[in-house]
Amino acid sequence: MLVTALVRPVVLRALAEDLEGGDLTTEATVPEGARAVGRAIAGGPIVVCGGDVFRTVFHELDPSLHVTVVTEEGALAQRGQVLWEVRGSARSILMGERTALNFVQRMSGIATLARRFVGALPQGSVTRITDTRKTTPGLRMLERYAVRTGGAHNHRDTLGSAVLIKDNHIVAAGGVRAAVTRARARAPHTTRIEIEVETLPMLDEALSAGADIVMLDNFAPDEVAEAVKRAHGKAQVEVSGGITLERVATLARAGVDVVSVGALTHSAPAADIGLDLSNEGAPTT
């Protein structure tokens, strides 16, 4: 779930970005007392995500607006299906329309792609599909939530939340063994040590140094199978780099524990969602 207190600052920044100079078009063309209902509609099959953010946008803009969830979070919606409704001041709805849609199109797009990757796993597989830190600056919380809504998992959230030794850390530390040893001495006892390896010899060194998780970076299929065999009973195996939907089933059958997919957040296409407005006229007295 999303914590409203954390969502609100993100929404306020987005509204300020769009409304710094007001809304010249809406203020010039729409009568002040006009009322309307806006219906967010799916333009194609999507996994619905972002209802709380949609509501927060309109409530922060105008607390008198009433937002209704029509399609539940995480549901698979079809073309033409109404997702959310917002009712009240036509001016306020128009002013918040683009900001609200930007959020839910992005979030639903990520959730939809995540669902596709999870769906590519063989039935009964215990392999996890996870995201990476390749997120949009300032939107990580929302994008990570969208990944979970799609049925996938999150990798480490921040640099301080886990030890993940990458290629440049290995260079700076003076080698695989030195990096793992120093990380083990410094990290909290509750933290596992993960290290990225690019070759089978690096894998062997990481395993002998006591790494808990090994990330295979751009390994060929036959190398992945051999790495899983060598790591069995010693460390979890994660595969990263160039992951496509077509590779997921093969990696899962090879015994890989985790498949991390940067594309879930950095390359997910925006979901097709539009806001259709119906005029309800001026308020009655």
Q: Could you please describe the fold and organization of this structure?
A:
Strands 6-11-10-9-8-7 form a six-stranded parallel beta sheet. The chain has a four-stranded antiparallel beta sheet with strand order 3-5-1-12, with helices on one face. A two-stranded antiparallel ribbon has the order 2-4. The protein has helices at residues 4-19, 24-29, 51-61, 90-119, 140-149, 167-173, 176-186, 200-208, 221-231, 245-253, 263-266, and strands at 35-42, 46-47, 66-69, 76-77, 82-89, 128-130, 163-165, 193-197, 213-217, 236-240, 258-260, 273-281. The chain has two domains: 4-117 and 269-281, Quinolinate phosphoribosyl transferase, N-terminal domain (Aldehyde Oxidoreductase, domain 3), CATH 3.90.1170; 153-260, Aldolase class I (TIM Barrel). Helix 8 (200-208) links the parallel strand 8 (193-197) and strand 9 (213-217). With 285 residues, it is of the alpha/beta class. Helix 1 (4-19) packs across helix 4, helix 6 packs across helix 7 and helix 8 (200-208) packs parallel to helix 9 (221-231).
